[in-house]
Design brief:
Layout lengths: L10 E3 L1 H5 L5 H14 L3 E3 L12 H12 L5 E5 L1 E5 L2 E4 L3 H15 L5 E4 L8 H13 L6 E4 L3 H10 L4 E5 L8 H9 L2 E5 L10 H4 L1 H10 L3 H12 L3 E5 L4 H8 L8 H13 L5
Parallel strand pairs: 1-2, 1-10, 2-3, 3-6, 6-7, 7-8, 8-9, 9-10
Antiparallel strand pairs: 4-5
Length: about 280
Amino acid sequence: MTRVLDRSGVVLGIAALVLNEGATDDNAREVIAAAVDAGVLALDTARAYARLDDDGVGERLAAEGRALRPGLPIITKAGHYRAAANAWNSDGSAERLRADAARSVELLGRPLDLLLLHRADRVDDLEESVAALAALREEGLARAVGLSNASADLIDRALAVAPIDAVQNRLGLGVDSFAEYHRCREAGLDFFGYAPFGGPRAAPLATRVPHVAALATERGTSVHRLTLAAVLAVLPGYWPVIGSTRAESARDAIGAMTEAVDDELREALLGDLASRGVPV
């Protein structure tokens, strides 16, 4: 298995910077620049992070971010594309994945650090998709490959076809199960968890991790920053993918990478998650 990132830390997802109502390229550049300056470990984008008149905007913004710190890893995804204002289609065929990978290489300016099948849960033939990803890795278009939005069963099916390197799934703290994370740990796969704070429809983070929130108040920091710091300490092989849309929130979240973590904080997070019925 190829290690995608060489240390623990935070990844910035670009989806909201492109797809949210009212999103602008200028704001996206400001947030990405702030994240790069704060020490973000990687940027996360996709072919699907597009506009109807610009199929490459999400990857182009990521490439601009890497220009601020040459060598910054970029994660991208294939096999899912914008078909209308509020509609996306999935196509995991070998032909589509090869075309998407070629377009991503064109936009990002070099072979891909990590290429994921975007909607592993929606393709017609997962085995064909995984074989195609493995071929792209063998040919050097991608250094590492994997799945996104994959159940433990889909992960096992993929591994039966060819080695994969990583999985990216939603993992809202206090909301989602850690089953796929644990399956990835067993298989030696890197796990990237998007929407770590639960997404816009989830209850406020402080209500889901009340003991961590109390410590954040005592320590004069944000509950988001302290929660991420604790997560990085207690979940090896897990990289949270944040969806910040403001420069200041990106800096705050990425600051978790240098936040001190003690036993009190670890126990607070573990207890909060267990009380929600989703223990680590």
